[in-house]
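Write out the 3D structure for:
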Amino acid sequence: MSTDLFNLEGRIALVTGASRGIGRACAVGLARSGADVAVVSRGQALQDTAREIEKAGRRSLALTEDLAEPDSADRVVRLVVDKFGRLDILVNNAGTTRRAPCEEFSDEDWALVLELNLNAVFRLCRAAGRVMLAQGYGRIVNIASLMSFQGGFTIPAYAASKHAVAGLTKSLANEWASRGISVNAVAPGYVRTEVTAPLEKDPVRSRQIIERIPQGRWAEPEDIVGAVLFLASAAAAYVQGHVLVVDGGWLSR
């Protein structure tokens, strides 16, 4: 297979939640594959990501936005198009979680998680989709989760949101596949990030997790990049509505 299939030179990408973890790794990976990359986050380290993109020889745009605000998606997409003239790739990575037993889980935490993990994802897909439909080309990669397939414990809102992201991905693919847009998702397993740090620090839970992973370790954010690059590239031109699991074998157990 020609390596040109994975060449993103000339493409414009937008990655959310890009100040750290999976989002930052994906933004830098897209740049190293040739794309100019706009990055969005509320995190203070967003400029560090932008500098890494520029070190790769690509243009960057750093946007500090709260994607839970309903009007932020349209604003972000407009700023990207104003800067670069188009938008070819959207990676919806921004997300959050809250933990509590289901019987104690508050309405406030439920609303917060669903707003960022689902509503913002839909709004960004909608805004980017309008641009991509006008172009006749686009790649959308939503970041799902193992919890798109399982329920977990003490994370009802997170599990519900990630199940919904998988469904949304399929729904958008059904409508847009014939119009030049590919819509897929990546479902990471247990990745070493700030969000999962409490689990990793729990000696019992961390041991249980590693024992179930055939590969025998937690993922690093960089382990997710290849799957995102594949789905964002010409190599995945006939892949639609798919949720690609990157979990070290967790679901095979």
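The helical segments are 21-32, 46-55, 72-84, 107-135, 156-176, 197-201, 203-212, 225-232.
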